[in-house]
Each structure stands twice: as C-alpha cells, then as structure tokens.
Amino acid sequence: MVGFSWECTGGCSTLCIVDLYHTAYKSTKILLDLMAPGGGVCKDVIESHPKTLKYDVATTKTDKSVTRIATGKHGMQSTNGVHELLECPVCTTLMYPPIHQCPNGHTLCSNCKLRVHNCCPTCRLEMGNIRCLALEKVAESLELPCRHQVLGCHDIFPYYSKLKHEQNCRFRPYNCPYAGSECSITGDIPFLVTHLKDDHNVDMHDGCTFNHRYVKSNPHEVENATWMLTVFNCYGRQFCLHFEAFQLGMAPVYISFLRFMGEDTEAKKFSYSLEVGGYGRKFTWQGVPRSIHDSHRKVRDSQDGLVIPRNLALFFSGGDRQELKLRVSGRIWKEQ
User: Fold this and answer.
1) pLDDT along the chain (336 residues), means of 10
2) 4, 20 in Cβ contact below 8 A?
3) Please, which residues bridge with residue 119 across strands?
4) Which domains does the chain have, with CATH numbers?
5) Could you tell me which of 5, 130, 160 has the C-alpha nearest to residue 72?
6) How many whole angstroms separate alpha carbon 119 and alpha carbon 84?
7) How far apart are CA 256 and CA 212, in angstroms?
C-alpha cells in the first residue's frame, strides 16, 4: 500500500483503509495516463520564458485537497508511486518546476536537463521543450515532512515550500568548520568537535581569553599565510578562531575572526574582541561571532572580523619587514 494519509470525510478518527487504497490507486493511475506520450496536460513551452510556479513561498490552501506522504527517503516512503515519479532519475533528488519530459514521457529536473545536453538519459531521445504540467500539479497538492525530521524537525510543509525551509532549518546538520581543506563531513556539534580534534588535529583550549603569536619567516609564506584553526571551549560552548592572508581587491591583507559552533540565534548572545599591535600602537576589533552555518569563505569575504593591511602587520612585526610576527589577543563574553 502506498503511503497516503487521508482523513475520512465522515469525521471519524481512524483511517478508512479501503477508501485510502482506492484513492491512492486512482490518483497514481490517472497521473501515469496523463504523463504518457500524447497526454493532454504536458505541452510544449518556450524554453526562454518558462511558466514556473513559485515554490519558495508557502501558500494557504482552502478549497484544495492535500495529500500527506508518510516519512521515509526525502520525507516519503520509497514504495510510493508518486515519490518515484517526483524523483529525478539522474541526480535522484526531488524535482521542482520546471519539470521536463521527453516525447516518451520520461521526466527530468531542469538542472540535469542541462547536464545531459538535452538528451533523455532513459531513451536517448532529444528532450525538446516539453513541460510536464501534470506532475507539477500533483506535487503542488502534497505536504511533506522536513528531511531533517530524524534530527528533531517535526513540521510539515507544502511541497513547494519544503526546499526553502530545509535550507534554513535550525535542525539541519553543520558543515565541518575547518578552513584548511574542503572537508565534506557534516554532523551535530559534539560529532564535529571530535572530528576536528581527531581528523584535523585542531588545538582545543579551555577559557574565554587567548593570546596567540603568529610567525612566518619565509616571504612566500608571509604572502600566503594560513594558520590552523583553534577551538575554544567557553561558557560550555565552542568557538573557532581563524587567521589567514587573503586579497581584498588588489590589497594584501590578513584577517582574524571568530565563528560559533551552533545556531545564529545562540551566537548573537555572545560578543568578542580581537587586538593586535606593537611599538605603542594597537588595532582592535569588537563584534559578534558568526554561526558555522555561515561558511568560512562567506565570513572572510564579508570582512566581518579584524582586517589588518599587510604593511601594518609587517610594521607591527618589526625587523626588516620581511617576517611576520604578530600577537593577536582577544576575549569572549556573554551578553546580559
């Protein structure tokens, strides 16, 4: 039996199993008939002006029947015929408008249509500009649980609002915050702390104040300096300290900033300061740590941290201005 959940129109509290099976069977059969070659609701559309549905904004349905799909892969049972129709055969993710189909009725998402060079991966016919309006309409009537349900999100969303929610769901897993490589590991905070320590050999420190000395003597290293991430355990939470060289336009600079291992709403409860100096001068920064949901590159490129021009950094370093010897101190505190 497919995973439809249907409320009895008589108001009873139990599922009407016979009606449930009959309704699901009819819905899937009608959809398959409509999607067959020559089906009346799949028509040619102009590629440069696709008629798309707005699926990133939740809509209120008052007079339309809504089908809720049971939990499983992508929030649906893998045995569900509708789920199989909505899954792209190339990338295996759920499809969103515009959904394309070839003359033989095989469907494909818009991203993969470009990847396969407009050639149907199933029958090898040219895809053309056929839009499967039937499947888009069926998807519009569905409500699905968030894909992060097993991590704690129990909300239900219309099909075309689900994707936008999942991109910002507070239960979504975190990416590894290590900046020295394109690490693809994801998980919750305790898992990532262990991962950083065991797999990236990241230094772990307890305390809310720090004083780090960054030294590079090779001129090439001075230009391309990146120091290993440091993690601080403070107020029972974890903070990641970054320091590296990068180009701000044509100007070579160094930047140091702090990221919070948790949600943005929690990060805003903390503040931090950074200070660098020498020879009677000081350069200071005060800000709010960014959540690690914001990537290292995003924070760096937004310049949300202590940005030090290289000439100033070399001045603070003293000597012949060929070595980098910076001492960066800072502290973290909790806002009242």
Assistant:
1) 39 37 41 46 37 38 43 42 81 88 91 91 90 88 84 84 84 85 86 93 93 78 72 96 85 91 94 91 94 91 92 82 84 92
2) yes
3) 126
4) 4-168 (3.30.40.10), 174-334 (2.60.210.10)
5) 5
6) 21
7) 11
